[in-house]
Every structure is written in structure tokens, then in C-alpha cells.
Predict the structure.
Amino acid sequence: MNKNKVKVFISYPCFEYWLILHCEFSRAPFSSLPKSAGTSCFSKLKTFPIFNNYTKGNVNGLFKDLLTHLPVAKKHAIKTMQEVIAVNEYNPSTPLHNLIEILETLGNPISITEDIFQFQ
């Protein structure tokens, strides 16, 4: 019997932390007061000019814009996860660099400079 396995990549407090890592390394925790930790993270993200037009759920063109920043984001995410292991504190953290590496090894890469990420 062939068992299917699912690998989960959880970003704390939210996906937007992965986006922040494209611009800077930070392990400053996101407070849940007076807003949620996710809302605090989103507010931090909006301080970077590259994310001026970003809204949750709308990633059209975003991956193309971030392509040149990907090596920096991966480096920052690796450092983040090393610190998570050392101090056992997940706020903030993301292992999404692992997902990117898996996707990069899947064979014939697709060009993400084309506008293929059109979500309806």
C-alpha cells in the first residue's frame, strides 16, 4: 500500500513574514496586542516600498518582482530557523525556503518572469 505524505510549511505569524525576509532579517516578535500578530506582521510588511501595492490574497506579479530578492530571503529564513531551534521560539519564523528548494529541484524549471501567477 502506497501512503501519501503531506509536508506542511507553517509561517508564524503568517505568510507575510516570508515576504519581509526578502527585504531584511528580523526576529523581533510580532505582538498580538492591540491587533493580531498577523496584522502586526502585515503592517511591518507595508513599510517596505516594494510591497506598497500588496494586499492579502493578491500575488499577481509579486513573485516576478521578488525574484532578485529570493537568495536573500532564503538566507534570512535559514538563519531564522537556526535561531528557532536554538531558543525554541517560533515568533516569527518560516521554513518556506525549504519549499522553494523542493520546487527548484522538481525538474524542468518554469520561467517565473512570465506572468503565470494569475489568480482569479
